[in-house]
Write a structure and sequence with these properties.
Layout lengths: L1 H14 L2 H24 L1 H14 L3 H6 L3 H31 L1 H12 L11 H22 L6 H26 L4 H10 L1 H15 L8 H25 L4
Helix pairs in contact: 1-11, 2-5, 2-11, 5-7, 5-8, 5-11, 6-11, 7-8, 8-10, 8-11, 9-11, 10-11
Length: 244
Amino acid sequence: MISIFEALSGAFRSLFSLRMLWLMVWPVLSAMAIWAILAFFFWTPLQNAWQWLFNYFGLGEWFTGIEPAWIGAALQVILHLMLYVPLVMLTALVLTAIFGMDAMVNIVSERFYPDLLKKHGGSILGSSANAFTAVVVYIGLWIVTLPLWLLGPIGAVIPFVTAGYLNQRLFRYDALAIHADPEELKSVVEKNKGDLWVLGILLGLIQFMPLLNFFAPVFTGLAFIHLCLGKLAQKRTSAQAPAA
């Protein structure tokens, strides 16, 4: 757990620099603009798709039968927001992972790991495949578990678990791609799955907090960079240590 707190504190220290300002602003604003434009031009199809989803899970008639009617309408608005916020965060996270991680990795490594050798074990193809897998699985989990969001405490936990999966899957590859070779990349991920998941879930909490979620994509990327590069540095130090 110490490494997780070190990753979070390192991400916090790295967050406050002029070079991070633009990376903080544009992914979230771009994601909000993308979904606002899509909602404006495709509102009717989106409404129909949302209604189909309600009916598919048997919620349509339930909403219609709620008395007074405004309660059902309010619940539907809440569910719309529950759809909009994850879509914005998902888009912002993907934009950050694809277009911002290389810059963030270089910034963190220059300051905190200047002696860590760059072996360039990742690739653009590998990064793209990893991001695609992360998004597809996340959307699938999100759709399958959507009805459970209404089940009290269970529903309150599910969004953070799915966000935890997305965070650790989306950022771990790019955090290591520049410095690790292919074997190291695979080994660091395999041996630290627990820490990656815990960090992903903790960062998922931030992504659902108003105002703080504006900084969440970059903070998430920085935290995974600190955790993964720290684990890689430990691995290499252990490998170089003479046998007793």
